[in-house]
Design goal:
single chain; two-stranded antiparallel sheet; 48% helix
Amino acid sequence: MRVEDMPTIEHGTKRRIDGLQLSEYLKSFPADCIATEHVHSMPQQGVASTFSFGMSYGIALAIGDVYATEKIDVRPQLWKKHFGLIKQPKDAARQLVLEKFPDDADRFKRKKDHGRADATLIALWAYETREL
């Protein structure tokens, strides 16, 4: 298993996905399938953060289109149901990844590593459910 954080770059006072670095990474580590979580805006989210979030999602999808022949955009309910994580606390995904991949425990040791855990489970869901 290989887990990498999404490369980012400073953009004014914020950070955004570094599309060039992501592109270079995918070019050096070819994948036939890329899985993303299908996201949408949240009702309490502000206009600027919604725009920024959507832009990041779009960058990830576009670069994935360039480097993978198969793209899977999965709704959170689907992959979470597969792993029994519906209505579980946010940290449950991280705990599950620690159980499944004990050799990679250093990558998931902090509570704030739950995003890495989610990404890992999305990739594992794609691997386990797609027709090879």
